[in-house]
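dude i think i finally got it to work??
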Amino acid sequence: MATAALGLVLHFGIAYLWTAVYYLGYRRSASLQRLTSTRSGALLVGAALGVIWLVMDLVVLPLSAARPTPPSSPFFWILLLGHAVVVGSPIALLVRSRR
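look at this
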């Protein structure tokens, strides 16, 4: 139970860190602000932001004791799409609304 709680805290902590990095980049980049000025642009950027999960799964996890999700698994594609839609897009839309 303690390991699961630690995993949950770390998962949301990493998500918060990536959100903060995106927010700082957004504040400093006029081109990113222009691109996300429309809802469709924000959703597109959000989907790309969700792909950060891919980097975490294929690069960061292999450096730890955790096992990455193999691309041959259907869960790989579900997680990739889920992070793009359920994580990245809301982040981009929320940051955009905080002008």
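The first helix runs from residue 2 to 28.
im so relieved honestly
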